[in-house]
Amino acid sequence: RSKNILTHLKVPPEALILSVLFRVLFNSLFRVAIMLAFSLFLSSTAAAAGQSSFSLPGFLGFLLFFPAIILAGLSIGVLLAPFNVIYSDVGRFVKVALIPLRYATPVFYAIPATAENPALQTLLSIVHNCNPVAFLLVNLRSLATAGVITDIPQTVICVIFFFTVFLIGWVIFHLAIPVLADRA
Question: What pTM was estimated for this model as a whole?
């Protein structure tokens, strides 16, 4: 889509990153509003069942911490973008790989606390510990519902990891895009 823009206009590569960031923030605004509405609507049902579903201070913390998950996606996207320009199969591979990887996030499973099925517990623990996005998702969920971050050191390590990946990807992106735009 942006190949014509890059060849005809002298747009800095960072403008493309910012446009994607603003699009993600705009789309996320609606999703967060829907999450807030459902949390408020279901809070009485969850309270009757003895579960926590909404915490106003936690939700405000969630809004402050939400850019961390956006940083995770943005860092991977910025790192892979120059390779996608060279090899269009990278984009196809990412689309195909992301579908099963959605099920490897802790949104679809919870690690059982008891050892009813030790093999399943071990498998889910391995998947959880190898997935850096899992720590961010678990902490975002617990922050929004209970108002606490469950594992602060691991979360800080994940944010630092994704920030480092973003910086490396940004340098590669900044150096590669002008060269690739001239070749196009």
Answer: 0.79
Kindly give, in sequence order, each residue whose CB lies less than 8 Å from that of residue 132, ignoring residues fewer than 6 positions away.
72, 158, 161, 162
Judge whether 162 and 72 are in contact, CB under 8 Å: yes
Six-digit token string for 129: 């510990």
Q: How far is CA 27 from the centre of its chain?
A: 13
Whether the CA torsion 132, 137, 140, 143 is positive or negative: it is negative
> How far, in whole angstroms, is CA 128 from its chain's centroid?
15
Tens digits of residue pLDDT in 105-162? 776 666 666 667 777 777 777 777 777 888 888 888 888 877 888 888 988 999 999 9
Q: Angle at the Cα of 77 (from 76 to 82), degrees rounded to 5?
A: 110
103: Cβ contacts below 8 Å, ≥ 6 apart: 109
Residue 34: CB atoms within 10 A of its CB come to: 10
pLDDT at 3 over 70: no
Check pLDDT > 60 for residue 2. Answer: no
DSSP helix/strand/coil, 103: coil
Place of tokens 């498998």: 123
